Amino acid sequence: xxxxxxxxxxxxxxxxxxxxxxxxxxxxxxxxxxxxxxxxxxxxxxxxxxxxxxxxxxxxxxxxxxxxxxxxxxxxxxxxxxxxxxxxxxxxxxxxxxxxxxxxxxxxxxxxxxxxxxxxxxxxxxxxxxxxxxxxxxxxxxxxxxxxxxxxxxxxxxxxxxxxxxxxxxxxxxxxxxxxxxxxxxxxxxxxxxxxxxxxxxxxxxxxxxxxxxxxxxxxxxxxxxxxxxxxxxxxxxxxxxxxxxxxxxxxxxxxxxxxxxxxxxxxxxxxxxxxxxxxxxxxxxxxxxxxxxxxxxxxxxxxxxxxxxxxxxxxxxxxxxxxxxxxxxxxxxxxxxxxxxxxxxxxxxxxxxxxxxxxxxxxxxxxxxxxxxx
Length: 375
Hints:
Blueprint: H1 3-17, E1 23-28, H2 36-52, E2 57-62, H3 73-78, E3 84-88, H4 97-105, H5 113-125, H6 128-136, E4 139-140, E5 144-145, E6 150-154, E7 168-170, H7 174-182, E8 186-188, H8 195-200, E9 206-209, H9 213-216, E10 225-231, E11 237-243, H10 244-249, H11 252-286, E12 290-292, H12 296-319, H13 326-346, H14 351-361
Parallel strand pairs: 1-2, 1-3, 7-8, 7-9, 10-12
Antiparallel strand pairs: 3-11, 4-11, 5-11, 6-9, 6-10
Helix pairs in contact: 2-11, 4-12, 5-11, 5-13, 11-14
């Protein structure tokens, strides 16, 4: 074979190996690669989208805040600094009153993150004002994820309602701030990177966070007690929020694939947090950490707070966020939560069977030919 033929063969190989319309989309997340959302959601999502689109959609991840920090992602994705990002809507309730305000205020509506994720997604896909707030911010909604409810990792025993009096507790947002205040404690805001030092030095008496944080931040080396409170599930993380121009550049098949893979990945995130949390608690027990569920007056106080938080969410949404249909939104949220809780039971808590149902009953109803497409 002469050199001309070899060169021609190499050129053909290169053309066939690279899709004609391949494009790289920059993704921004402030989470480190070892975070459960990244491990169970983002990284598999990127691989599956690349494989299913034959490389036409190649997503390049900038993790750990390398491209955009947690509160800059909304504007950064809107302005095209990133094509897609992990956006925490409750950081921006004025821009996202439904997703970041009202939906987040419903953190007390059930505690299993798998059916919570499915219910929240069906709710938002079919909520016209929710879709409008995405469009106003230059985004295309592809789904939200939920994580496990909060535990309190502490350096002292917390067994009764009175034990909360005077406690300084790191919290994860307004829902938990209000809970701690209600029981006489003081909420403190801290990023994950500061959990260990704050607890170790007594800056806080406890850290309210997801159970897997026991291992992620090595809190099992210094904590002596965990109250497995299971209070409040965040459900307003826009895991794969796409810039609308980037979304419009894709073909219909690619958009359909992304919607399907986003649904699967969001449910995998919820499932992954459950598994990581169980493993973290097991490791902590092996190290001598006492882990208890609430009982007595403390259990009653948590139940009462969850119940009253639903009514409070409606009032807050109406008075603070100007949402006129808050009551109808909450009623639909409750209906869908009941629906997906029942499906979770029907599937025997089998995550693969549950994902199949979610694709069939929810994602397949979204028309990729028109969804998110600008006129």
